[in-house]
């Protein structure tokens, strides 16, 4: 396992430190999945629709001031959410690769 690898390695990491890292990864992964489930499945389409609406020349007329504020706020909020989701997905992938590498190294060191 990963803890045996860390205990036998020369990196100086303890079994406890590796166990903590693995637990933190699992907690972060659960949080990522919870956040993903709470995200509208059509988020990309929502952003595209709002951007299309805001690109209409009549959208910026003064009588649309309240709608302008709502749409621009939603575009900003949803775009930030899209960026955050992509970052979380990337970090999750990076962390999983790191754990896989540790497990593969552990298997090789026990053979």
Low-confidence stretches: 1-7
Shape: rod-shaped
Q: Mean of the pLDDT scores?
A: 81
Structural class: mainly alpha
Strand content of the residues, in percent? under 5%
* Overall helicity: over 70%
Distance between the amino and carboxyl termini = 12 Å
Tally of helical segments: 4
Largest sheet: none
Using the CA coordinates, give the radius of gyration: 23 Å
Helix and strand succession? Answer: HHHH
Say how many strands there are: 0
Task: Describe the protein's architecture and organization.
There is one protein chain. With 111 residues, this protein is mainly alpha-helical. Helix content is 80%, strand content 0%. Helix 1 (2-8) runs antiparallel to helix 2 (15-38), helix 1 (2-8) packs across helix 4 (65-110) and helix 2 runs antiparallel to helix 4. The chain is rod-shaped. The two termini are 12 Å apart. Residues 1-7 have low confidence and may be disordered.
List its traits.
disordered N terminus, 111 residues, 0% strand, 4 helices, mainly alpha, rod-shaped
Task: Set out the fold topology.
Layout: H1 2-8, H2 15-38, H3 43-54, H4 65-110
Structure summarized in a few sentences:
The chain is mainly alpha-helical and 111 residues long. It has helices at 2-8, 15-38, 43-54, 65-110.
